[in-house]
Every structure is written in C-alpha cells, then in structure tokens.
Amino acid sequence: MTLYIARLFAVRIVAVLLMLVLVLQMLDLLSESGHILAAKGNGQMELLRYGMLRTPQLVSRFLPYSVLLATIITLMTLNQNSEVIAMKAAGLSAHQVLAPLFLVSAAASVFTFTFNERVVVRSTATLKAWQDVDYGAVPTDSDVKSNVWLQDGPNIVFAKTISGRGTATRMSEVSWYRRDPTGVVTEIVHAPLATYTHPGWRFDHPTSFDVQSAALTTLPGPKVYASGVEPTQIIIRKTDADRESITQLSQSIAEIQAAGYRTNELDGKWWHKISGPLSAVLMPLLGSVAAFGLARSGKLFVRAVIGMALGFAYFVVDNAALAMGNFGGYSPFLAAWSPFLLFLLIGETVLIRTEE
Questions:
Q1: Which of 97, 123, 310, 332 has the fewest C-beta atoms lying within 10 Å of its C-beta?
Q2: How big, in percent rounded to 5, are the helix, strand and coil portions of the chain?
Q3: What is the pairing mode between strands 185-196 and 215-218?
Q4: Exposure string for 28-47, b = 16+ CB within 10 A, e = fewer
Q5: 353 vs 106, residue with greater confidence
Q6: CA distance linking residue 328 with residue 14, whole number of Å
Q7: Global pTM value
Q8: Distance between CA atoms of 120 and 111, rounded to whole angstroms?
Q9: Using CA atoms, how far apart are residues 246 and 121, in angstroms rounded to an integer?
Q10: How confident is the model over 112-139, as pLDDT tens digits?
Q11: Cβ–Cβ < 8 Å for 33, 128
C-alpha cells in the first residue's frame, strides 16, 4: 500500500512539475527573447543557453507548488475511488494514510536542497552575470560581479567586472571619478586592471581625462587610487544569496560581520535556504483536506479548493515574513521559520477537524 501511494504521488509530482516548467519556460522565453537577440551576434544558441540556465530556477521555485497540486490530485483520486475509505476501514489513521506522501515529500525536500546548492546557485550566478552585460559575452567565472559602483569618500569608483575575494580581489575596466566639494566630476582615471594594495588599488597602465580641459593623458607607471575602498565594500554591495551556496553565504556573512555591518537580510535568506526546500513536507498536510469526507456529498471540489488555498496562503505568508525580516520587523530565524511552524499547526488542526 505504501509503495502504491508513494509511486502514484511521485509520478504526479513529476508530471505537474514538467507541465509548470514547460509552460513558464515558454512564457519567460517569449518575454526575454527580444532582449537576448538584441545583443550583437546572439541567435538561436543563445536562446537555448538562456533556457538551460533558467530551467533550474523554475524547477527549484515551483517544486513545492508541484507537490501541493500533486497532493490534491492524488488524494482526490483516492477519495473518489473509495480507497481512502478502504484504508480507514482497515484501521489506518489519517496520518498513516498520509505517511507515504510525507516520505515522498521529504525526499523532494532533500532533492530540492541538494539541487539548489549544486546546480541552481551556479546557473543563477551565470545568468545574472550574463544579464548584467546585456546578454553579451557569457562570463566564464560565475562568481564575477559586473557593473559595480563603489564610494571612495567624495569620489566614485566603477568597475566593469570584479573577481576574487579579500586581498585577491581584482577589478577590470575600472574608472575612478574625482569630484570637487560641489559633487562635480573634475577628473576620470581609467585602467584596464586594478589590484588591491591595502590600502588603495593599483591601477595598471592608467590614463587620466581632465574634464575641464578635455585632455587625455597617459600616466607613467602604476598609480594607487581609491584608498577608501575596501574589499568588504564589494562583498556588501554585491552579495546575492541566490548566487551563493549556503557555505559561500556563511563566509560572506562572516566577512561582513567582521567589518562591523549588520547582516539581518542575509541571515534570513541563509535560514530560508533550509526552510524553503522543507516547505514541500507541509504540502501533503495542507492538501490533506481533499482526502477525507464522502466524495458523493458533492463537497470534494470545495475541499480541494480549501487545500489549494491553504497551500498558496503558506507561500504568501512565507514571502511576507521574509520581507518583514529584511526590514528588521522579525528576527532572521523567526522570519524564515515562523510561516513553517504556523502552517504546520494549521494543517494539523484542519486535518483533525475534517478527518471525520
């Protein structure tokens, strides 16, 4: 019985997920194809590359939705065929009926977490780096940060790309803008490469453009500029939890905290990397209302709607709690885990109330 229900449930999860990913991939590709083809030299292969990079994100994001929809479809089918009644008549409790679904959902959660850490973060980093250069040349290093603006006291630094971490950080196509007390740019120093010298950045083969005289001068030898810019600023400015695995994000949080900055938003996303995949375990509980009650009573459709409403309400509350955590309204741990615990209690209550 366990194998029968688990297989039935797993097949429906895969079927619903494939349907959602194919439809959403098509719509997303239609909306982005114009931007991709606008870049010089891009064609069909670039559209295919975009689809390959976008697919892992869609799989990760909509797997919990697929578990919810598969739960309702599976339980409605079992209820309509009176299989739930037969299982209850055999002495199985509601939780025992749902046990195979919980096992498959737990496996889906483990798969989602592993898939996120091994595949999704890499594809997201590569895709965002590609989008940062307007779908131009694909960056070879997914950890490259593109189009970064940094504050150097009254002056400004712009780097086309930044790679490396800590003292090994390197900027390419970097420009340093000198500004007067009124904020007007008076000089622009450009270099193809800049490396961190602690303090400051060594500009190799720099050129200076004087705004007032419009004179371009090649400066002799490497020069040091932007002494107020630290590698930690780059981490703070460009750390993206979606691009980093939980190990990389832990390192970024530690470096930012060591520099004396708050990391509430990143802490919340760190916890959500665990609670997010685990949400699949909740879906059989929230959709279980469709399993119990007589199918011939005519209320099976209403029960299915209630199950879908509970499941989608969880995702709404989860996003709202994460946003509140980003603004400091909740602690990071509470923002990530309170929706899970809340709907766990709601699901148990609804299951106990509607079982009979």
A1: 123
A2: 60, 15, 20
A3: unpaired
A4: beeebeeebeeeeebeeebe
A5: 106
A6: 38
A7: 0.79
A8: 12
A9: 10
A10: 999 999 999 999 988 888 887 788 875 5
A11: no
